[in-house]
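One example given next:
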Amino acid sequence: MSEAGQIHLSEVISHGEPNIVLDAMGGDYAPDEVVRGGIEAAPFIKGKLILVGQTDAIHASLKRVNDGLLPSNVEIHHASQIVEMHEKPLDAYRKKKDSSMLVGCKLVKDGKAKAFVSAGSTGAASATSLLTWRQVHGIHRPAIGSQLPNMHGGFLLLDSGASPDVDPEHLVEFAIMGRAYAEAVMGRKKPRVHLVNIGEEEGKGNSFAKQAYKLLQDHEWFAGNIEGKDMFNSACDVVVCEAFVGNTILKTAEGVAEMFAKMIKSGVPTNKLLQTMYWPLKKVMKPIRKHMDYAEVGGSPLLGLNGTCIIAHGRSNAKAIKNAVLMADKAIRSDLVDHIRDAIHRELPQNFIETQNG
């Protein structure tokens, strides 16, 4: 509680119910795959799962995917409007006051839940959660963190799409948030941070990269520059960059993974007898495919807000939705938002934090 006796939004969410709101209307395969994924995740979460969307559509989906049965820890909350993928994020926030996104985020704001999961428009989900919950004090720009596979257990890349126009100073915030996530959710001890650049040596890159390097090198956890190829081959925990670069890396990695999967599939003969020759290869490929499947991770957290927002892929199937919900549950159990809040106030000087308020 503040000195004036007023309760801050951050206090409401921090002490809210450990429930998860799932946008039942978001995504290419909503509501069926979203509802199915939510139902599959429900037995494994700490609190309740709240399906937000058009009640009739959700009930109809339940009949198709779960014989009309609603698990004991799942409830439905009505929202009459749907945010379409083509809509501008701010228009969706301002004009659709009863959308599943805005209603869902308000449930978190009101302390009825701690996390919001959506496979709808990334821009709309980011804008709606930001404008509804606001940033953690000391954070100027939120960042999307995406877990990507590599030869050493994977790493967190941020920002991969939330804030395309940032200053070098904001990459320090991204690094601190990324480290907090890597510790709390990924289980990394004393995670190190690398900066995406065109070379490993200090002094490489454009003026933005050089300024960011100078600011980051003041922190003992900074491990220097890293090239694109080395992210996937070297041991790294957190990799930071501006959203334009991060989103390009993310989409390129997805495209390359899909290309290899298609190439391997097309190389297998259609003849049943000849296919038996490929069975040993199939056993080798199975764990590799698992590492490359975005559905295994489920979604990407939008870090830096007074609440947990997990943004799932637009074409998420039930498996991806289930894992996105489980990611949200893990973030709640690990007190991720408080972990980020503490890290920001521990790592950044007070005068830098106060510039957020002008």
